[in-house]
Automatic annotation (TrEMBL):
Domain Lactate/malate dehydrogenase C-terminal intervals: 172-335
Keywords linked to the UniProt accession: NAD, Oxidoreductase, Tricarboxylic acid cycle
UniProt-recorded name of the protein: Malate dehydrogenase
Residues annotated as domain Lactate/malate dehydrogenase N-terminal: 28-170
Gene: MDH8
Amino acid sequence: SPSNLQMGESSMLERANCRAKGGAPGFKVAILGAAGGIGQPLAMLMKMNPLVSVLHLYDVVNSPGVTADISHMDTGAVVRGFLGQKELEAALTGMDLVVIPAGVPRKPGMTRDDLFNINAGIVRTLCEGIAKCCPNALVNLISNPVNSTVPIAAEVFKKAGIYDPKKLLGVTMLDVVRANTFVAEVLGLDPREVDVPVVGGHAGVTILPLLSQVKPPCSFTPEETEFLTKRIQDGGTEVVQAKAGAGSATLSMAYAAVKFADLCLRGLRGDAGIVACAYVDSKVTELPFFASKVRLGRGGAEEVYQLGPLNEYERVGLEKAKQELATSIQKGVSFIKK
Ligand code: NAI
């Protein structure tokens, strides 16, 4: 009968809550924008991560359906759904890690900067919630334009008096994932054996792969360098064009986001030697934000590594990247300060 069903459901929920509260080992993770093209596969992959004990799925539409669906997976994490602004605070309270893929994606002919007007406001609202409800959480920001949304988040956190630069990470892992794949293709290697540092930012010429630092050590002809650099920089546009109006990268992005979030959680757990590229508050260049390798630990990005030796091609690329980054950072900062 319906009443039995209700009783069954509520006692099940109680038990799940108990399991979550009773300190099931693991971290509490929220995904904001969980019903989107990235959000859904990201939620699925996070539910499979044994380091996650509680998974909160927040969106302004469709989160109940995604939550019901994901919650049937027989993995450890307890899943809860949250719908709309009035449930944002409940979604965020107590979280260790907040992953943000909320916002509109590109269509053919658009740059990431064309998304600024809509996504800047979304990121501001979500970060105000984080400042209020889980000011110590690590934040993985995916919403574009990342080069500007990370400075926006930083300004919101500064205004709220809770800014910890180590805890705000712009996700550039998809650029690294693409670089590993494309470089492996040229070298005839398994992509899992390849490590390409990608520095700078996450848009066009600000995406700067350091092909002189690829592991395992190798060398490229000038033509290969040009081809690979362009392909890595335009990887997102390759997907936008192939999807022909249906959005941008979602599946490879969800994969990259989970790869990055997993490294963040291992760092939080206290594992040693966790290193990844991310777009962070930085003193590596004269710019206030820059992507480079960082060491992830209990406090977030505990160490930001220098770029290492660059060749002439990379030095020229770095100057171009810095010029565009400076404008994008300024745009983000003034969005909050104006
Ligand atoms: P989508 O449109 O499929 O999903 C976005 C989701 O955000 C939707 O479910 C929407 O309801 C939700 N949303 C909108 N406003 C919200 C709010 N105020 N609070 C919570 N949720 C809200 O878009 P998709 O493809 O998932 O892309 C999301 C973002 O990720 C875009 O900005 C895109 O440019 C960016 N992106 C970033 C990449 C990176 O490497 N950092 C790579 C690919 C995409």
